[in-house]
Design goal:
The chain is α/β, with parallel strands linked by helices. The chain has helices at residues 6-13, 44-52, 66-72, 108-118, 140-156, 167-172, 196-207, 209-213, 215-220, 225-247; strands at 34-38, 58-63, 78-80, 93-99, 119-128, 134-137, 177-190, 253-265. It has ten helices and eight strands. Helix 5 (140-156) packs antiparallel against helix 10 (225-247) and helix 7 (196-207) packs across helix 10.
Length: 266
Amino acid sequence: MREFSEDYLRRTRRGMWDDSREALAPLALESRSRILDVGCGTGELSRVLAAESPSGAEVVGCDADSALLEVAADCVPVVAGDAYELPFPDDAFDLVVCQALLINLPDPEAALAEFARVSSDLVAAVEPNNAAVSVDSSVDAEGDLERRARRAYLDGVETDVALGADARAAFEATPLEVLETRRYDHVRTVEPPYDEGAVVAARRKATGAGLADDRETMLSGGLTEGEYDDLRSEWRQMGRDVVEQMEAREYEREETVPFFVTVGHV
């Protein structure tokens, strides 16, 4: 399983539920008493589950990374554990849920089977289709470069990052009975006035830091050293254009991430 930093999880997960929490409707939170958030990371989803549970359900966060659990512990009880071998007895929860976890696991079906073991009722997965992310930007080159970089990165990733669109198949490979799958589009916008996160992201583009972080993965997917260097050069120029537009308060960006909520019954 890939490991992620606290900063990465905060940037990618925070804000997902700010505009609407309609995607949580299939989880039937009004009737839950104990909820387990597997792969909780910094607890972004755990916080939302606790806030949205009208019955005052106990929400427990579980993750293999102790550093991330220290952050999540500020809002919910946490337990260190592996998604394939959860440290809980059978039927310990009536809802087991994960967010953007299965796409990072080599064997999502095995994880779902383990989720089913510790759930007495529902198992749910909130998973994106990272292969279908779209970007619309006031910097002409950004959309095309984003697609090229994403394609090169995904070619080097060993797990199924598009699993969100086909999570039903993973559920059906387990004893779980699929109740429904719903698609939602999460839209992230950047526009004046720019927050600190947007400014930092622009600077990382201008320095090529983001591509540098992903260099090894991109090269393992078939991108040559020369192709990577060319891509990074274009990426840095695009980043400088973003910074320039930001200084003029002209930069706007809209990123759409399709994700799917799949719910199964034990």
